[in-house]
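Hi Q.,

Before the meeting this afternoon, I wanted you to have the manganese (II) ion prediction in hand. No need to reply - just skim if you have a minute. The sequence and ligand are here:
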Amino acid sequence: MAAPGENLKINGDRLWDSIHEMAEIGPGVAGGNNRQTVTDEDGEGRRLFQKWCEDAGLTMGVDQMGTMFMRREGTDPDALPVYVGSHLDTQPTGGRYDGVLGVLGGLEIIRTLNDLGIKTKHPIVVTNWTNEEGTRFAPAMMASGVFAGVLDQDDIYQHEDAAGLKFGDELERIGWKGEEKTGDRKMHAFFELHIEQGPILEAENIDIGVVTHGQGLRWVECTITGKESHTGSTPMKMRKNAGRGLALVTELVHEIAMKRQPNAVGAIGHIDVYPNSRNIIPGKVVFTVDIRSHELDTLKEMFAELESEAPKLCESIGVKFEAEIIGQFDPPAFDENCVTAVRNAAKRLGYSHRDIISGAGHDACWINRVAPTSMVMCPCVDGLSHNEAEEITKEWAAKGTDVLFHAVVETAEIVE
Ligand code: HGY
Ligand code: MN
Ligand code: MN
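Predicted structure with the ligand bound:
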């Protein structure tokens, strides 16, 4: 296949402006974003993205999970499209670039192809996957998981947020529940550009991460049950303090990961304490353990240790431990040809690059099960993400999108 010439590059200023215009929707309190899935802000961001895509001549499809598919025609209407995208939903205290760079990077490819009057044999479809973050409604990578056939859509529609609102109802309320059956689309390939969300690329002064694998993940929702009672008048030896159970399990999760360095991570990010009153001993604590490794055996060992040790710790202080897996995927290995297309693009463009394993989960991890898939990463400042202070440079964004452009356009086959 004819590869794009090394001088073919996207318009980095236009990309940067679009990223920061999108960031004005669902602003955070500290310069980042709070544009959580299927909120009104998410709806507003979707409409802006739709407008930009339609201005670029794209036609929109929306599936029953609300995922947006923005299509540029190829010269061969029967050729399977090359998909490129990520997500526009953010964490409650998210950054401007997590997900957004991958969606607007895909749009910038279209805008550049239009500027240059380049046609491709395969259609190209820019994609905004619904609810990648999984923060308001678990699990993460929700819509891509349904698309890949690993999550059941009817079940997912019933998942509730902290206020008891159902995902399916909220998707309908913001007007983005499409007709298209989720997962019916067939892909020639899928590419995702994403910030690294870790420190490696910046520390090694490297511009491009060629993502060969991802970490696997287990999200374990744990419930520790003790007994509510007065924090002042209940004798210490009579207490059944669910909060102490949380402290013991928090430390256990940390130790489980630390024993398996450098290939394991573990933490507890979501915690609900009941009744959460200053002078009542917590009777119940519900929290989510997030454990990850790129080695499947390590990940299975970590889960097994949590499952065996946590109940013992809780029993020793008179409280009960229960657990349920609410999100999981095994470590993905991305498609050799797609990974090579990314690596060759970085070489052709003369950008420093290295193979890398993705620490975070991405929609690409699920789509990798139904189509040849790979990812491009760019550095982020101090490796910081899922924090409003998340930052990248315009140059990193442009170089990552140049590589994405070359990989996508080469795979979609330029028509001379
Ligand atoms: O949890 C993750 O890795 C992703 O950011 N949703
Ligand atoms: Mn993301
Ligand atoms: Mn994220």
